[in-house]
Amino acid sequence: MSERTRRARAEGRRPRARRSIAVAAVLVAIGLAAADLVAPGPARAQAAPCAGDPAYRLLDFWIGDWNVLSGGARVGTNRIVPILNGCAIREQWSSARGGAGESLFFHVPATGEWKQVWVTDSATSRGGVKEKRLVERLEGGAVRFQGAIPLPGGDRYLDRTTLTPEKDGRVRQVIEVSADGGATWRTTFDAIYLRRGGDGSAADPPASDVRPAPAGGAGAAGDERELMEADRAFARAAAERGLEGWVSWFTDDAARVVAGGPIARGQAGIRELDGPLFSDPKARLTWEPVEAGLFAPGDHGFTRGRFRLVRGGAGEADTTGWYLSIWRRERDGWRVILDTGGPDEQGGS
User: Fold this and answer.
1) pLDDT tens across 261-301, in order?
2) Which residues are within 8 A (CB) of 70 and not within 5 positions of it... i.e. 6 or more apart?
3) Is the dihedral of CA 72, 76, 77, 82 positive or negative?
4) I want to staple 50 with a disulfide (CB 3.0 to 4.6 A). Which of 86, 284, 336, 341 is the partner?
5) Strands 186-195 and 250-258
């Protein structure tokens, strides 16, 4: 073979070799890119920065699907789930009466704070919207969130929630309110969380699985005491804050039935009906409950007692009589849904 022939053949093979090298380089680059996508490394770890950070594990004991019991009866269900790759916690509450509410709990890295925003399907009602922050870590892993809840007219009250993990895997939730800046607290919700079955069944747990309520807390006797104390707090609110204090204890769908008079419906109607009484500087309405009771399954109750209306005007005699209030257990405590009463008959005691 001549030198010219060998050179021509060699030159004919060179482009093919260069193409093979280029294809191989592309395949290697693709392989490296694919390996980078699936292999662990700093870039991939940053995709879920909260998941491995202990600061975001505060409420791990509460995560799950729960039956919520108070006084031995199921008052609702609650689902607590981590969202956004573990950067926040969502609470999905469903009341046995049909109401619903949701919370978003989240950690603020810059300040180290935990915060909660709570919104219900009755957001216009007292306690229908709340904002709280973590104020205390208690013994045994318990945590406490607290916030100031605004009221119409510029007043506000303190509201705090304490969540306590128990050794048997249950969780206790206690909600308390204070009208005096935290000097005293009144329990409005005391419940035990029991995990639901693996099939998500909402059936009540066996009675044997329900621990007796703590003394002074939930339970029939405890709830009756709560109702009596709620009625007394209602009376104090009316005495201290007048019309606004009076109206704030009624639910938005409440009714006021006055003997021989009109029926006032809702807070607006009650405000209109009772406004003239509370605008009279000489008038003073006081009352004291003498009896309280619960209606099954425990989310409604009643108080009954004596009232006195002092008019204070010349020639105006005091009015005394009996009243009856029907109450409903709301998420932030007992509220009045029906109030009625009437004066004593002439000559009555």
Assistant:
1) 789 999 889 988 988 888 888 888 999 999 999 887 778 99
2) 189, 190, 191, 192, 213, 218, 298, 329
3) negative
4) 86
5) unpaired
